[in-house]
Write a structure and sequence with these properties.
Distance between the termini: 19 Å
CATH topology: Transferase(Phosphotransferase), domain 1
CATH architecture: Orthogonal Bundle
Bound molecules: adenosine-5'-diphosphate, magnesium ion
Order of helices and strands: HEEEHEEEHHHEEHHHH
Radius of gyration: 17 Å
Shape: globular
Number of helices: 9
């Protein structure tokens, strides 16, 4: 699976690889306005250096969220997906106002495709054909295993971004919103948490890919996985939840067939 299960264009692959190479952005992103949906009350941001758009999460600071490490989860999820070769929208950490306004920092998740809609919106507009749904069976199967690995039960059609410039017989998709994964679900070692089922109607279940991806994740070296968690600076992720994340990722990675039920 060296090329991964995705159909990102060369431009998108470049962005993905570049974001995987950095932990924190040093750019002066501009806050453009509220996104206007989602529990994190995220803000739309723009990088004036290259006009890249993205979503900064979380939005307005809330004291009850200081122990919710959304930014760290978003970044680790993207980095792990990159390690495996799976289509997650590129994420960097954004240090602006960390420790003051934003106690545990923010992440920026960028558009995987220059043009697109969330799956539910594209579906509502009738933009996704039956053939296109069939064409994403492998990606959807792979991501189901991945989400079981990272303890993410918060999966739904409006966390899938659809490239509205996809060819008629193939759909390009990317997954986002991993703020509620990992330490949000794992409060200790060997944590129990539910896994999500199949939630995209019309997409066939591809068991062969699920099995292949479970094996592929199991074969990733523990040190590579741990290194991606450990490179997150402490101000975004304190020692306790960091340890739980590493322990659960390593414990679950060899047990994905059982967790997913395949
Ligand atoms: N990478 C992305 N690509 C496209 N849209 C995004 C992306 N990240 C966030 N969004 C938009 O921002 C909204 C809120 O983001 P989300 O990650 O779902 O945060 P929340 O934690 O608030 O649910 C989404 O519903 C979507 O419209
Ligand atoms: Mg969301």
């Amino acid at each position: 699976m060296t090329n991964g299960v995705h159909r990102f264009s060369a431009v998108q692959r470049e962005l993905r690889d570049r974001f995987a190479g950095i932990v924190e952005t040093g750019d002066d992103w501009i806050e453009v306005g509220r996104i206007g949906e989602g529990e994190s009350e995220s803000w739309r941001v723009r990088n004036p250096a290259d006009d890249m758009v993205g979503v900064a999460k979380p939005g307005p600071p809330r004291a009850d969220q200081d122990g919710h490490f959304r930014a760290a989860h978003e970044k680790i999820a993207f980095d792990l997906a990159h390690l495996i070769g799976l289509p997650v929208s590129p994420v960097v950490l954004w240090p602006k106002d960390i420790g003051t306004v934003y106690k545990v920092g923010r992440s920026i998740s960028c558009w995987a495709f220059p043009q697109g809609d969330k799956w539910n919106v594209a579906e509502g507009k009738g933009l996704i054909s039956a053939i296109q749904k069939q064409s994403v069976a492998a990606e959807v199967a792979a991501m189901r295993v991945f989400h079981a690995w990272i303890g993410d039960g918060d999966r739904k059609p409006d966390h899938v971004f659809v490239d509205t410039d996809s060819p008629p017989d193939r759909l390009n998709i990317a997954f986002f919103d991993h703020g509620n994964s990992m330490s949000a679900a794992w409060k200790g070692p060997n944590a129990n948490c539910g896994v999500c089922g199949h939630y995209l109607a019309g997409v066939p279940e591809d068991k062969d890919t699920m099995l292949a991806v479970a094996e592929h994740i199991a074969a990733c070296s523990d040190s590579n996985v741990q290194a991606l968690v450990d490179r997150i600076p402490a101000r975004y992720l304190p020692t306790g939840p960091r340890g739980h994340i590493i322990q659960n990722l390593l414990a679950r990675k060899g047990n994905l067939r059982g967790l997913v039920g395949i």
